[in-house]
Amino acid sequence: MLSKDAIKLYVLGLSLLGLTAWVFFRENRMDWTDYQAEFKEFVTEKFGAERAAQVPTGIQQIWVKDLDRVDRCITCHQAVEWKGLETAPEPYRTHPKEILEKHPLTAYGCTSCHGGQGFSTILPDAHGNVEHWEEPVLGAEVSEAYLIKNSKALMEMNCNSCHRYDRETKGMDYINTAKKLVEQKDCRACHTINGRGGIIGPDLTFEGEKPTEQFDYGRLTGRHSVFAWQVAHFQNPKMVSPDSVMPNFGFSSQDAQALALLVMSWRKEPIPANYISGVQLRDVPTQEEIEKEKRMLEGEGAFFVQNKCFICHSVTSLGVDSAAKIGPDLSDAVTDVQSRFGRTLDDFLMEPTGTMSVVLATQIPLTTEQRQQAIALLKVAYQRKLEQQIKNASPSPMPTGK
Amino acid sequence: MATELISETKTRSTLLVMLRDKLRLKPAWEKLTWTWRPETKREAGDAIVRNFVLHWFPAKVSLESLSWGYSFWLGTISAVLFLILTITGGVLMFLYVPSVERAYLSVKDLEFSTSYGWFLRGLHRIGAHLMVAVVFLHMVRVFLTGAFKNGRKAVGQNRPLNWIIGVALLLITLLLSFTGYLLPWDQLAYWAITVGTNIASSAPVFGEPTRFILLGGTTIEQATLIRFYVLHCFVLPLATLWLVSYHMWRVRKDGGLACVEKRYEEAKKEERPAIASKTYSLLGITGGTAVDVRNVMVDDEKDKVPSSPYLTVRLAVVTLATLVASIVLTLIVKAPLEEAANPAVTPNPAKAPWYFLWLQELVTITTFTIGGFTINGALIGGIILPGVLVLAAVLWPYFDKSPVSSIGRWFPKERKWQNRIFLLIIVAILILTFIGTFMRGPFWEIYMPWQEWEQTPRKF
What we know:
The structure holds two protein chains of two kinds. In chain A, strand 1 and strand 2 (69-71) form a beta hairpin. The longest helix of chain A is centred in the first third of the chain and has 27 residues, at 2-28. In chain A, the strands form two sheets. In chain A, strands 1-2 form a two-stranded antiparallel ribbon. A two-stranded antiparallel ribbon of chain A has the order 3-4. The relative contact order of chain A is 0.05. Chain A has helices spanning 2-28, 31-47, 49-53, 97-102, 105-108, 111-114, 123-127, 140-145, 156-162, 173-184, 226-235, 237-240, 253-265, 287-298, 302-306, 333-341, 345-350, 354-362, 368-393, and strands spanning 62-64, 69-71, 192-193, 196-197. Chain A is mainly alpha-helical. Chain A has 19 helices and four strands. By secondary structure, chain B is mostly helical. Chain B has two domains: 2-37, no CATH class; 53-444, Cytochrome Bc1 Complex, Chain C (Up-down Bundle), CATH 1.20.810. Helix content of chain B is 62%, strand content 4%. Chain B is built from 19 helices and six strands. A two-stranded antiparallel sheet of chain B has the order 1-4. A two-stranded antiparallel sheet of chain B has the order 2-3. In chain B, helix 8 runs antiparallel to helix 9 (159-182), helix 8 (117-144) packs across helix 16 (307-332) and helix 9 crosses helix 10. Chain B is globular, with a radius of gyration of 28 Å.
């Protein structure tokens, strides 16, 4: 009995050793190790061994904290930011440069535009055409399945997450067309979109959020997908849902695809406001403030408004009113400068001291001509002030008694 | 020369010890490593007698107890699986984040970027499923062999109690698996726990409060996740460890595995004169009033072998075999991870964990409509029926009046009807589990295994 057990023990021990080796091998021979080795060879051939030595090894990732994304795509797509591999085969091709300039990798990652599963370091899972992952890479593979001519068109759906409120965005032809169609056909007659529109049809503001299970695919031939449903529905609403009262607009298949992408882009996913195109994140002056500035620009004191003197100084006699009034009113600068600094206005403005020297040296650099212009205008301002004083001092007409 | 040296060192060390005792000094390392020191020899002896680890195995063990075919070593396998789960789980605790925001992402990281993360998670998952199955099979074995019955009137034997502890351990195993099911925070987890806790809530009076306490509210959210996490990683494993220790200690207290009982029966038949000279009761070691304790002696030399190496080697074989089998399954079976949990989207069909699917089936079967009146099956199928089954399991040993000769044997004639009823229940549970797992498709319709389900809709 003991010797038999001993044999079992040896056999099991050896199999455990074998399994350990297998686990070790599997851990250290992932898809990406092959791609990285191949890329190194590729770089050696093209640029020499020195360059190849700089290629990083191991899992690479871009962590975009703001978008809560971890994209490990660059583990295999190592050449994304390289120069000189623009025509190399994938996954070793350089990413088109222009778009990356406005959308740096560190701020956007890869999957926020391309789709796919950023976590993954295994090819099929990463490209996302797998069970339990609804955001595949929106490229050639999916485009071919839906006979879309432009293989980059699908990606516009993701672009529109941030460009949602643009009327038109450069390079987003499908979405631009769709947005125009929304205006032309006046979808808002029946549907509410972004808080504006009718109530005959369903609110479409978050149409892209509707789960796959909530569509009726019963009358759909071919692939059961939200995209297929939306396209079919745009082309013939009654065919997909017989009770629908939506008119058939006779959209071409390309228009229907564009509209499907647009409505599917209307999602609820949280995006930081600074990522959303067209959203102003700054203090905007009120209408009143804007009008006041406009009025002052048309008056005699326009110079002081244009050159931002009015931020600190009012020039009351010329109709310039500073909100802050940090400095003295410049209406009587002619006499005021004399009493404050013991110098003439002309002299002072040409070679200022104190605060004014700092302001004129850093924030408001005036040329000599501009300074002379200022001096002349300040003299006019003093003139006006005196005139106004005389006017106010003269007896006003007696009020007629009751 | 040599003896002189020894005696010299002896004197010296005795002197040192005396000095130390006089000064009541203890070496620093002793103070740090050993806080308790027996004051008397009796105390020291007691400490050895009470030590569980030292008495885990008997000095000698009968050959039947060691056989593969009697017990299939299912209890041992369960313990080994628990060990595997504890070790892998311990490492996973460093890598998993129990927060609604990060839980799913940390499991994705395990799967794709943590070194050996896929293996750890896979092994932990397979180990958990195996443990549920093996603990269940262990219970089936114990019932079918009548191993919950007391045999000879031995001192302190109480096998029914150990059976009840076993039932408790099965329930805790299910709870351990159930609490672990939620942690990945994917759709599978979220909806399995929804179904499971909804069934629990249909219990009268206590149902809703139980669900509320378990979830930490009315919906499965962060409060639920952290509760399940603490239960899964701390409370339940600790309870298991404690109960398993007691369970094993009881096996020894009950005189070993039930299969040895028949030896005592045979020995009785041989009518060897019983040795009737021991007076344990006087010594206060045993209860009862009889001074004369008659004992049937079984010839140790003839029937038993030393535990070491016979038992220890087999234990090593079972441990290795369990480990090898778990690893092989880990490498073959892919651990699923669905979409992140989404309370707004109910998967179709939404299923409880597989070991609760027989309950979900029972709920379906017991839900029916008479006229305009619908009977909710959750109470009957989800609470009353399983409750009755657990209660029956607990009480069964006390109603089992089959003779002692049926103990520790597979399919004894004397327990034919008991075993038939038990097997009927087991087979019913297995069939319902099979239907629930493999035959329930969208809208909880029956699909034959060869019938294709409706195409699962996708986004693209």
